[in-house]
Specification:
The protein is of the alpha/beta class. It is built from 14 helices and 17 strands. Bound molecules: pyridoxal-5'-phosphate (PLP).
Amino acid sequence: MTAGRTALKSLSTPAFSLERVRADFPILKLEIGGKPLVYFDNAASSQMPQPVIDRLVRYQTTQHANVNRGVHFLSETATAAYEEARGKVQRFINAREDRELVFTSGTTDAINLVTHGYGRKFIGPGDEIILTTLEHHSNIVPWQMLAEDKGAKLRVAPINDAGELLVDEYEKLFNAHTKFVAVTHVSNALGTINPVKRMIAFAHARDVPVLVDGAQAVPHLAVDVQDLDCDFYAFSGHKLCGPTGIGVLYGKAAVLERMAPFKGGGDMILSVTFEKTTYNTIPHKFEAGTPPIAAAIGLGAAVDYILAIGMDAIAAHECDLLEYATAQMNRLSGVRIVGTAAQKAAVLSFMIDGVHPHDVGTLLNQEGIAVRTGHHCAQPVMRHFRVPATSRASFAFYNGMAEVDALIAGIRTVQKVFA
Ligand SMILES: Cc1ncc(COP(=O)(O)O)c(C=O)c1O
């Protein structure tokens, strides 16, 4: 796995101890049907370490109150913790200012915020929005809904049979009608890492803003939104060892300022009369109602936890895991890896000859191994590879080589059952 980052070091960097890391995750001690859990469904949702659980407990037991509108101790404490979490996320992706971070309920919500707040205001009939074949449905359907509403058109950049974006074809899609680009940083179905920095620079040279769906990137790569120069960057807490129900939309302050609010309600206003409402400043303009306070604070703790391990150590370990798993799987006859891009994050989608992925998932589960099977909310990718579904093993920094061996043994068992 490479990602335009510093050279990856080998697994044995002294700073990274798999045993120590695994000890932080209570759920990894589970047995499923008498077999040790092998959790390879991290792209769907990752697990939560004890320090994040502890932070949630501390918040609920000593700090909980509603934020923003109280003068009492607990409300001020909760507000400070909530805003502190915003600052942690700001530093995590190196945003210029903390007001550029909007808490949402997840990546899906963040993208919908952009299609409503930006798209409905600035995209009109005949305008074109560029997506790629690699997108998750979350980065397709909201744009499709916008395009239908506004009479705009979607253009789709294709991929090759390794699952790599054809960047030349992407560049050819631009014309005078192009008004927006929405692209995934890392494909959830294949693990392909897109060359988003180059894609953003190309779009900006034509005054086209870019949203990057970073749901699958932030758990694996060091992301610097100022370096990428993206206009928007969206991700979810629950794929980053944080809680469900929390996500982040980063937007450049000047762009967020120009946008309309998405949801109306409390806290997103400065004043309300029945004649007229004036809106709050960013990011509060986009955070209507009581926000997911505990979840945001939990995300802040998750970011602290991940940064303490270090993104370089995480990337290096996951790179070793992916290389090892790829080599092991390539040795199996009757197994095909789907998605063989040169630049990949820790995802291995595969097909076993003569066995439907759902059967693969069910039989692996009997071995205690959790993989995801299905279309992974990426049906255009499945269509490209002419498969209805794949089995997907997705790795996190707390997975080890022994677990990869268990997966390979599990696949052999599946093959025996269907022989
Ligand atoms: C690339 C990508 N984008 C968006 C999403 C949607 O994330 P959420 O369901 O947390 O909103 C996912 C979830 O799997 C994803 O992998």
